[in-house]
Design goal:
Layout: E1 5-10, H1 14-25, E2 30-36, H2 39-49, E3 53-56, H3 65-75, E4 80-85, H4 90-99, E5 103-106, H5 111-122, E6 127-128, H6 130-141, H7 156-166, H8 171-178, H9 182-196, H10 201-210
Helix pairs in contact: 2-3, 3-4, 7-9, 7-10, 8-9
GO molecular function, one term: DNA binding
Keywords: DNA-binding, Phosphoprotein, Transcription, Transcription regulation
Protein name: Response regulator transcription factor
Length: 215
Amino acid sequence: MSGPVGVLVVDDHPVFREGFAALLATIDEVRVLGTAATGAEALRRVAELRPDVVVMDVAMPDLDGIEATRRLAVSHPHVGVVVLTMSEEDATIFDAVRAGARGYLLKGAEPDEVVRAVTTVAAGGVVFGAVLAGRIAEFFARPRGGAAEPFPELSPREREILDLVAAGLSNGQIAERLFLSGKTVRNHVSAVLTKLHAADRAAAIIRARDAGLGR
């Protein structure tokens, strides 16, 4: 984009809000259009000032930054939101992303990091601080062992057999793998189809693979 990035600073702590706005005002690439102390005020100020980017705190009275971001994403989708907060909790990070924030930085970030975030988000990009980017990557790489098992209506043995069915094994191969009789495997497969309300083996395989089985 041409010209400086128009920014609205939103934070309920006046010392931080005004100090941060004053810092941004010294940056050639940024033009501070105004400030707001609550999420509700932020919505009104965005409608009035039409900033390119809103730098948004999370914990605020009246309307918190997550809900304000969610509403801005609907009412002003072209306005980028950079969340700037003290919170490093996974829940807060992902709530902000789901709400539509395109940047997330911790208070205490270096000024040049903030400027890069503001200008990148204004240009349509997405920015997270280096530490948070690592946390996000770690979150998605984390084994999902704590997640609920798919198809809770199945017994552990039935789920095991469904996993092998989804992997493409025949009843005979499953029987050999699990040291079961062919009749026992057929009975388990039949029970699985009944419990999943699957019309046939192919339908069960599709559902199982959609749930992550058969890999």
